[in-house]
């Protein structure tokens, strides 16, 4: 979290699902990341479902803790395309998955993640792929056992550090923007719709230019 929004957050309700979405999922809301993890109180699941129901974001509970839920918030079409790319498909297969389709991956991953959380079995590195991390960094993390990285930010970077540092700064920038919008009274569904419209407009513009 950037220091210029710390004081703003102090004056807000930290239990608010809207605020937690802004803090934990700003990059995916803004359309510059495929997915993010969201951790919220178990009692807030219905509220989250109500918020995301009418948006372009999907979600899946990947760890149903007693008090806290770990949730994958994602853009389904973009994540599906990423998982279907050849390098990722090959890697997913090497990790024991029989399909690269998200509907087939998620149930298996959830079981693995629960075993990791509750039994401390092997960490499922495919989480990095579900979060849209560059495959070279996921492979680098495994190869170096989480060490010898070039930079540590939203993930540990093993290649093209300069470009990814800029990307991380963009993530922080949109986090600040979205928190400020919430603070100024714009509801989270309106914020998600706003960024969705921007992404759609940029996509349409690119298609016309092409």
Model description:
This protein is mostly helical and 210 residues long. The chain contains ten helices and five strands; from the N terminus they run ααβαββαααααββαα. The strands form two sheets. A three-stranded antiparallel beta sheet has the order 1-3-2. It has a two-stranded antiparallel ribbon with strand order 4-5. β4 and β5 form a beta hairpin. α2 packs antiparallel against α9 and α2 runs parallel beside α10.
Question: What is the element layout, followed by pairings?
Answer:
Blueprint: H1 6-10, H2 17-29, E1 35-41, H3 45-52, E2 58-64, E3 68-74, H4 76-83, H5 86-94, H6 102-119, H7 127-130, H8 135-143, E4 151-152, E5 156-157, H9 161-183, H10 188-209
Antiparallel strand pairs: 1-3, 2-3, 4-5
Number of helices: 10
Please give the radius of gyration in angstroms: 18 Å
Low-confidence segments, ≥5 residues, pLDDT <50? 200-210
Could you give the count of β-strands? 5
Order of helices and strands: HHEHEEHHHHHEEHH
What's the quick description here?
By secondary structure, the protein is mostly helical. 57% of the residues lie in helices and 12% in strands.
Note the main attributes of this structure.
210 residues, mainly alpha, two-stranded antiparallel ribbon, 5 strands
